[in-house]
Amino acid sequence: MMRIEHHVCFGGAQEVWQHHSDVLGCDMRIGVYLPPQAKDGPCPVLYWLSGLTCTEQNFITKAGAQRYAAEHGIILVTPDTSPRGDDVADAEGYDIGKGAGFYVNATEAPWSAHYRMYDYVVDELPALIEASFPANDARAISGHSMGGHGALVIALRNPTRYRSVSAFSPIVAPSQVPWGEKAFTTYLGADRDAWALYDATALVSSELNERLPLLIEQGRDDEFLANQLKPELLQLAAEAQGQPITLNLRPGYDHSYYFIASFIGEHIVYHARAMKA
Ligand SMILES: N[C@@H](CCC(=O)N[C@@H](CS)C(=O)NCC(=O)O)C(=O)O
């Protein structure tokens, strides 16, 4: 692990680290915000998964989350959104390839060589964080858009590993919208049965042993709301299964980090309560 950025921030530090990922077979960058409380002992960790086109930088420079993490003693971990490097497959367009890993383990060539973001976020990343930083084993997960999809899927499939989950403007039913259909066809192949494991709405509709409450923040004026996000599909599936869900529709807000910055404080309080309970 090599530290490539260090900035004192709200009494703690915003850092960026680079490490070799065995799961992805490439070097990866991670944003790590250490609150001032981390100097005195282990703190809980909130993992943030970003959306299409993002790196580890978008959340740490735009969301304004450090103020709240410092107040509540939460470490923020923000991985990149895909494998990186010259030998990693890529494609034209922002919605496939680098910056668009969709938090799946790809099964189709050439993607399957490196695109294993599901295993990276679920296993390798927390093991690395908990071995390298003053982190305890209380974890929460959140994300935006493609990253909101990742956070929901990962928490639904691993409910005992996370104390809480939330999502901003998530892709809740990737099998039913253009972004998801394109990505899943590319990474997972044409067989839609393989897609269900990475589709929050399909997962909620299946038998789950444990059901973490879902907290969703969504701007009503989000330009992707009607054709890519469709949070009502998840809400209907959750209500049919008795899965607790809170969908906050916020008039006027769009898909951008201005929306995230407006509500990230409330989400950090939510996760801090769950992780300290
Ligand atoms: N570039 C795409 C949209 C990509 C996009 O909106 N990305 C969101 C996540 S899905 C984002 O966080 N962008 C980076 C940023 O706002 O900092 C387009 O023009 O349609």
From TrEMBL:
<comment type="function">
    <text>Serine hydrolase involved in the detoxification of formaldehyde.</text>
</comment>
<dbReference type="GO" id="GO:0005829">
    <property type="term" value="C:cytosol"/>
</dbReference>
<comment type="similarity">
    <text>Belongs to the esterase D family.</text>
</comment>
<dbReference type="InterPro" id="IPR000801">
    <property type="entry name" value="Esterase-like"/>
</dbReference>
<dbReference type="InterPro" id="IPR029058">
    <property type="entry name" value="AB_hydrolase_fold"/>
</dbReference>
<dbReference type="GO" id="GO:0046294">
    <property type="term" value="P:formaldehyde catabolic process"/>
</dbReference>
<dbReference type="GO" id="GO:0052689">
    <property type="term" value="F:carboxylic ester hydrolase activity"/>
</dbReference>
<feature type="active site" description="Charge relay system">
    <location>
        <position position="255"/>
    </location>
</feature>
<dbReference type="Pfam" id="PF00756">
    <property type="entry name" value="Esterase"/>
</dbReference>
<dbReference type="GO" id="GO:0018738">
    <property type="term" value="F:S-formylglutathione hydrolase activity"/>
</dbReference>
<protein>
    <recommendedName>
        <fullName>S-formylglutathione hydrolase</fullName>
        <ecNumber>3.1.2.12</ecNumber>
    </recommendedName>
</protein>
<feature type="active site" description="Charge relay system">
    <location>
        <position position="145"/>
    </location>
</feature>
<keyword id="KW-0378">Hydrolase</keyword>
<feature type="active site" description="Charge relay system">
    <location>
        <position position="222"/>
    </location>
</feature>
<keyword id="KW-0719">Serine esterase</keyword>
<dbReference type="InterPro" id="IPR014186">
    <property type="entry name" value="S-formylglutathione_hydrol"/>
</dbReference>
